# Entry
Amino acid sequence: MVQLQSHAGDALAGPHIAWYVYVLRSFLALGVLGACAWGTMALAYRCPGAPAVRYFVIAWWIALGIAAIVALLRVRASVPLKGWPLGFLIAMVLLLGWWHTIKPANDRNWAADVAQLLDPQQDGSRITLHNVRNFEWRTETDFTPRWETREYDLDKLVSADLVLSYWMGPAIAHTLVSFAFSDGQRVVFSIEIRKKQGQKFSAVGGFFKDFEATLVAADERDILRVRSNVRGETVYLYRLNIPPKALREVFLGYLERARELRRTPAWYNTLTSNCTTIVFELARIIAPGLPLDYRLLLSGYFAEYAYDQGGLTPGFTYAQLYDRGNFVSRALAAGDSPDFSTLIRQGVPGDDPKVTP
# Structure
């Protein structure tokens, strides 16, 4: 009787064991699928050699992934696994090992607009910036390059503006910060991809070590006008509500990032190391309690996030700041005027003293 009960228990346990094993194999198969997709993109962007070699390696990688998934999803749990999953695991380890050998560099054949690295020097309150960009842009491909050395007095730093330039719908924008001094000088800082000659920006490529990062310091008639007047982007400007001590720390934070990039090249990452994340990182140094938010990833909504944290001009609704911050029509009218910076700020709360809530 005991023996019969034991056989019956085994018969009932069998299907449950098979179901759990199948679920486990399904999760493993999903993991292989994700790893296979990532590896395919990594090889597509970074595999060395001729295109024929790259296509062959990618085809081999995909075939190995498919074989591993098929082996894992065999319907009957009692069917032993073949060697494909183990083979894929070994290949994945080798791929990751190769991936970590790909290092960023500062000595490539760079595009003209990112050819120079910002070199900041500080002597007390005197700041000297070597390689400030001040290009004269006629079109995106027709320009006169100028790299200048400029001096600023940190004791005269009075304000900063957040600039968002929209180039791919309402959710994605490039983030810049423009600092103003009481003597009338301004300088804009922007974390950008460091393109090589002939290279085009790719948001996907930004996940796969396709671009190094660079910190550009530029004149507003260069870096803002090229976006509004030359590229046809929609650009907004917001006065930041930052106390003087914190303002100084943010400015110095940009200088330190420039020094870091000179010492140690870094990859630009579309998600984790881009034009918006540096602004957030610097802000958290000043106010460590700043919350994480989806608007840090969807950079087009970053100004709204800053408003919710009290970081924009007080006394106005966000709709008012958004409405009055669009300076494209004013930039087009200003052209290359020496008063470009003043003209684009007409009507901007916090920047234009005539504008009241």
User: Anything to note?
Assistant: Residues 99 and 209 are 9 Å apart (CA to CA). The chain has two domains: 15-101, 119-344. The longest strand covers residues 157-166.
